[in-house]
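Hi F.,

I've been meaning to write this up properly since the lab meeting, where we talked about keeping a consistent format for the predictions we share between groups. The idea is simple: the sequence comes first, exactly as it goes in, then the C-alpha cells exactly as they come out, then a line or two of notes. No screenshots and no reformatting. I'm using this chain as the first example so we have something concrete to point to.
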Amino acid sequence: MAEAPIPTPQTQPTVDPPHRHIDAGRGFTWWADSASWMFRDLSTLGLWIGMIITGLVISLVLGVIPLVGHMAAHVLWFVFAGGLALAAQKTAMQANPQFSDMFSGFGPRGGALLGAGLLLLLALVAVFALMMVIGVVAFFHTVWIAISASPLDAPDSYLGGLGGALAGLLVCVLLLIPISMAAWFAPALIVLRGAAPVDALRASYLGCQRHFGALTVYGLIWLGLAFVATLLLGLGWLFLLPWMFVSTYAAFVDIFGDASS
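Output, unedited:
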C-alpha cells in the first residue's frame, strides 16, 4: 500500500479549535474509529506495541537516575508523543507507519516539543511542591495541637486541621486537570500544525474545555478499559497505550479539523 503524504506544518498556523458543537457521544466514537484504524492488521498493531515498549524501556533506564532521570523521562515522553502523533496520523490514513516515526519528534519540531514539555514539567513541579507545603504545614499544625491544646479540645482541633489539609490537597489534585488538558493535544499541534509551545498548550486546553462532555465520555471509557487492561495481569496495557495515542489523534481531528487541510 502506498504511503499517504504527510502534511508539513503551516508557517503561521491558527491552532485554536473552531467554535462548533461536538456531541458528548463523540467520546465513544474516538475509541471506535481508532480501533478500526489500529487493529486492522497485526503488523500495524505489532509496530505500535514495539514503539510503546521501546519508550517504556527508555523511561525505566532513565528512572534509575534519582529525580533528574524521572524529570528527563517526562520531557522525553512528550517528545516521543510528538512522533507518535505522526505515526497515529499515518495509521488513520491507512498508510504505513514506521518505527522511526517514534523518534521524528527530535527533528525540526524538537525544540518546540522540549519547550512545551519543560513548561508542563514546571507546572507539575509547582503543584507537587504545593502539596508538600500543605503536608508540612498540616504536620506542624498537628504537633502544635498536641503541645498546646487541652485534652477536651484536641479531637476537634485535630479534625479541623485534617479537614483543612485534605481540602488543600484536593485543590492540588484539581489543578492537575487543566495541566492534563493543556498537555493532551499539544504534541499533535506542535508536530502537525507547527504551533509554538505556549500556543499549543493554550489551544489544547481550549479544545478540551469547549468539548468537556465528549472528553468526559472518553475518560469514563478509558477507566473501564484501564480496569480490564489491569485485570489481564497488566498485559492489556500493551494494547491500551497505543490505542490511547491513536484515539487522541481521532479526537484531535474531530476538534481541530483534519491536519492535512
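Notes:
The CA atoms of residues 158 and 169 lie 16 Å apart.
Confidence is low (pLDDT under 50) at residues 1-12.

If this format works for you, I'll send the rest the same way.

G.
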